[in-house]
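hey so u asked for the seq, here:
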Amino acid sequence: MGILAFFLFILITYAASISFNLENISPNDKDMFILDGGANISEDAIQVTPKNHSGMVIGRVTYTERLHLWDKRSGELASFSTSFSFVKLSDLERRHRQDDGFIFFLAQNSSLIHGAMDPKSDTRVNDSEDRYVWVEFDPYCNTWENSSQCDHVGINVNSDSSINQTKWLNTGRECQVLIKYKNLSVSFTSFRKNNFERDGVAHIVDLQNELPEWVAFGFSAASFELSDKNTVESWMFNSSNLQLDENTGLPPNKLGLVVGLVVGKSVLVTLLVILAYLLWNKKKNNGGEEV
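ran it, structure tokens below
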């Protein structure tokens, strides 16, 4: 039975879920992330872009593990939810001009994710081989967006133009965000007339058609003349397991049936062997007499 159990352990593979909850981010959490560009971790937050810099700064924070989003053999698709709070703080003396955006992304290649900025500033962003989905919090009046809204929250699918968006008022206060999938939905807070209000935007998108099986995820932001400081103060992420057969790709329900049949037959055979041994041993101890 030990050999059988080992065989079954090898047969069944688990694409482990990703789960973490960082209520108080500190430098002790640094090993959980890949920090690029202007990104760093301070005593109490992730600084995606720092304040008081000169020229263009792009920051990117990628979680070290990739998310197993779906399995091509079984067609099983994972679900996930993430919540975070962030602050986008601009130079208030020049607030009549807007700086670029802050995004949460899922991407084939995180190194090509450079914040919600003008794609003309980096031609690789529109590379047809690069696939990504992001949620952008963008105060900039983008000329390529199919909307007159400057401050908006948008869902982008393999495009720098939001496929769906809604108004967002950035006042330099903490914004709380919840993103869920399956069926991509975003809820967030805006501060209007001295009160927090919850808004939302959603879009039905099949990430199995838009993204590869394994994706990187995290935050990115771009900051130009206004020296926007983009700060993530807390972050929670949870995804579901993908339980699959490494050889056949059977989903859990069918795989469970197969394993159940194998184990059932093995137990029966084992019992028969034990019974035969007991009968043989008793006959031997009785000097070969019939039992």
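The chain has three helices and 18 strands. The radius of gyration is 27 Å.
lmk if thats what u needed
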